[in-house]
Amino acid sequence: MATQEKTYESIPIQNGGQIGMITTCVISMVLPTTLVILRFIARHRFSRLALDASDYCIGAALVFVLALCIVDFFMVFKGGFTFDLLEVQERFGPDALSTFFKCMAAWPLLWNCCVLTSKLSVLAMYMTLMPVRRMILSVRVVGAFVILYNVSGFITGLVICRPYAKNYDWENKVEGECGDVKVYYEWLSAINVVSDVVILLLPLPFVYSLQLALKKKVVLFGMFSVGFMTCAVTIFRQTLLPHLDAANPTGTGLLAFLFSTVEIAVAVSLACVPFLRPFFKSTFGSENRSKYQADTSSYSYSNKGTKNHRSQGFNELEDDGSEIQLQPVDPARDIAVKVETTWKIESRGAIPDRSSYGNYQARATSNSTP
User: Fold this and answer.
1) What DSSP assignment string belongs to 246-267?
2) How far is 215 from 141, CA to CA, in rounded Å?
3) Which of 84, 209, 264, 349 is 20 to 30 A distant from 335 in Cα terms?
4) Confidence of residue 238 (pLDDT cuts 50, 70, 90)
């Protein structure tokens, strides 16, 4: 008599953990996508600027966020996520567990790609908005660290189990070994917190040195400081990782994966905030187009109408644009603009022995030495 093959249930959506994960993924897809689109609209339609490295990086980061959310959906709908491992095996079958562990193996790879591109987007933005030597050097140093950290994290995710198929070999049928995945996650998260804090603190001294109205300076600090929300989520997620049981990841990993998804979605969303100024013109109106100087500036006037301007910092341009642009000052450049205006005045008086017209010339020379 042939043995009857065991049938397994389809995975139902029946608990709060599943609903919470699905809801989080939907929001984490919609919100970053909306803000990235608004960012591109602000740059192209309002400021008429071409896309730059920062925009391309944030676009790539959005793709990785969407990919991670899709992986989360597979974990919930096909992998039995939120159910205990033994229950998944008994109710939903070995294929469900294989799907879950494959998704779990792909997670750190996509996460590293998303973190790398989102951070590089922010750093590229700093170089565009504040192209001064100190900022450029700082960005390059921090950027090199971020690249090395995430590339090493990606490579570790590939080789932590050898062969790679060992990542999803929950039945121990494949010969090989795996490192401590839990420790790997903890170190990734800890270094990520440090890099987040460094990147967020990087522009604040430059913003502080700007000679702006207090209201605008507070708004700028707010725009650059909202990234601390990402740090808060990352730190909270770090506290959840010790509760992840490697022997039962389907039943104990909900909060860790959920807040990891929130973390990257928030990071991509907040990276778009500084570019949304055209949508808030009540604060950054277009009527005031004056240029603001940062650092120490001095002006001297000669009795010939010449104005000499010496500045040791950078100037803010396009006050109503989609971004704050600080133009570097180059002390080596001497820019002189000579304007000559001639008025021709015709006299129709009754004095015959005088010239019928006179020429008056006014010359105004403005020398600007940044």
Assistant:
1) TT-HHHH-HHHHHHHHHHHHHH
2) 32
3) 209
4) confident
